[in-house]
Amino acid sequence: MTPGQGMDLKIKDIVDLLEVSEKTVYRWIRDRKIPCYRINHQYRFNRAEINEWILDNRIPVANPHLTLSPGGLTTDLAGLIEQGGVCRDIAGDTVQQVLHNAVYAMRTPENIPKEDIFFAVMNREAMMPTAVGRGLALPHPRNPVITGVEDACVSVSFLRNSMDFGALDGQPVHTLFLILTYAPKRHLEVLSKISHLCRQDEFYGLLERRAGTDEILDSVRAYERKWAEGNRTTG
Prior knowledge:
The chain has about 240 residues and is an alpha/beta fold. It has helices spanning about 10-20, 20-30, 45-55, 75-85, 95-105, 115-125, 185-200, 200-210, 215-235; strands at about 35-40, 40-45, 85-90, 130-135, 135, 155-165, 175-180. The longest helix has 22 residues, at about 215-235. The radius of gyration is 17 Å and the shape is globular. The chain starts with 10 loop residues before the first helix and ends with a helix. Mean pLDDT is about 85; it is low at about 1-5 and about 65-70.
């Protein structure tokens, strides 16, 4: 990204948006918990990256820039998970090892080397941890590594041992949603659906007990039908 491009948010905007103090925002910056850039000795924020960060971390906003809600989304999350697979017993003593093994365990497009996907995921993780709290992380490339809708996929990966991913709530991660999408809008839609799903105690319980693949997919499909019906009712 070219310095200054899309940097339309300032510290005050973040304070107003999230209803937190400047001290909190500066602490997040210092601890690399929020995506930001230093331009001409001032901190600036990219709106799209902040939107993604808000969805990633399920942070409540006072004056939302986001309009995404599950009922209005067309992305078939269950289909994406079916494409990427539910992976179990992902080993690793470091975040890098865990992400490497998770990428190699999931089903990915044959025309894209897994090593390329891994490096793209690691580059994003190095910029900002993708842990979202409650033991979950949503690793993904910063920029799309796939170009076709047919190659999009999401894997659910259960780790052999919980791992510190630098989550805001400090909890170690036990489950990954590894996301590969082909466009920023679709990426935000997938993040929104996963974010809403993981707020549901019933679905979160499936992750905690590492439920079977069919049970996970059936639950995702049920929630997607519910959201679609709610959207038709209010439309």
